[in-house]
Amino acid sequence: MRDSRRNRQNGFQTMGSDGNWKQSGAGAPKPLRSTGKILGICALIAVVLVLVFGSTYQIREQEQAVLITLGQATAVTEPGLHFKIPFIQHVRKVNTTIQGFSIGYDVDDYNNATANESLMITSDYNFVNVDFFVEYRYSDPVKALYASREPVNILKNISQSCIRTVISSYTVDDVLTTGKNEIQAAIKSRIIDQLEQQDLGIQLVNITIQDSEPPTVEVMEAFKAVETAKQGKETALNNANKYRNEQLPQAQAKVDGIIKEAEARKTERINEATAQVARFNAMYEEYIKNPTITRQRMFFEAMEEVLPDLKVIIESPSGDMQTIYPIDSFVSPSQDGGSPAAPTPAPNYDNADTEE
Q: Is the Cβ–Cβ distance between 191 and 164 less than 8 Å?
């Protein structure tokens, strides 16, 4: 009886002798106090866990976060562990690494081209397929999340508009061959200007031309033939320049040799003419002093040059004959080593006869 009374006081049921539970108190079973305590403890632990894990968040190196407090957004750029107020503050993370998208083709399947994006018209009214790849990154996480709903799509539309504007101002040869770098720079400048006006919190890193080709196979083959001809032209020009560079030094050396030889002959002729003038002046001075003797001497020298074997013989009125030119030696061959011969008397040139 005492145990059943205590059980009833504690809210427990008592099993009778027949194996059935007996009603305690007023006849209705009371809830178990231990079960309520366990549930309360579990709820308390859950609340604590929510408060602990909901009040911290982690930002990685390549991320930035936006902390929203009752609708007010604030950028959090420092990486590491940060705290927030649960249920009042919310966090949205933004990936700030360089990302990209393609225009004109599928990144996963390059052969699957998108015609409505890649097909463009040039300034000379030719169609051409041009594929681009755009690289971007988020520069302001708050503007990237709240300045527009889809900033990447806006960037893609701006890129397509700028691409078509620039492509339409270049010829098809420039687009396919030599003008790609200039086209890329012009498109990038236009996109950056548009993004600064829109202020979307997104930044263009780079835009590159992946491929450019004519839209049909026939036109493609024709352009390949043109490109091959241009390469042949460049090869011929390079060979011609190489041959010119090889021949120019040789020709220049020949020219220098001819000029030096001409300068030497010029100097020689000038010196020879100067010597002849000096000789003539000296002879003229002697002629002024003794005109007759100088004239005769010049005559004999001229005759000696014209007729090297000339002899001058003078016959006197008495019949004696004497050789005047060339002058005989003072020593006759028969008297070699003896006394010298008598000097030859001076001839009378007025009565002299010359024979050869």
A: no
Instruction: Please tell me the predicted confidence (pLDDT) of residue 263.
Output: 93
Contact call for residues 101 and 146 (beta carbons, < 8 A):
no
State the helix-helix crossing angle for 217-289 and 291-306, rounded to 10 degrees: 130
Distance CA 172, CA 240 (A): 29
Query: Are 92 and 66 spatial neighbours (Cβ–Cβ below 8 Å)?
Result: yes
CA angle at residue 338 from 316 to 323, to 5 degrees?
Answer: 20
pLDDT at res. 349: 43
Q: Is 172 exposed, middle or buried (0-12, 13-18, 19+ CB in 10 A)?
A: buried
pLDDT score, position 7? 55
What's the pLDDT at 307?
A: 73
Structure tokens at 63: 């991320």
Give the integer Cα–Cα distance in Å for 128 and 116. Answer: 12
pLDDT tens-place string over residues 98-128: 999 999 888 776 566 666 788 898 998 888 8
351, with CB counted inside 10 A (0-12, 13-18, 19+), is exposed
Minimal CA–CA distance to 163: which of 116, 199, 201? 116
Whole-angstrom CA distances from 63 to 141, 323, 344 are: 9, 130, 133
Side by side, the strands of the sheet bearing 63-69 are: 72-76, 63-69, 89-95
The pTM score is: 0.51
Map residue 248 onto helix, strand or coil: helix
Q: Are 76 and 65 in contact (CB under 8 A)?
A: yes
Instruction: Count CA atoms within 13 Å of residue 210 on its CB side.
Output: 17
Averaged confidence pLDDT in the chain: 78
Task: Please report, for the chain, how many H helices and E strands are present, in that order.
Answer: 9, 13
pLDDT at 68 > cutoff 70: yes
The Cβ of residue 24 has, within 10 Å, a number of other Cβ atoms equal to 19
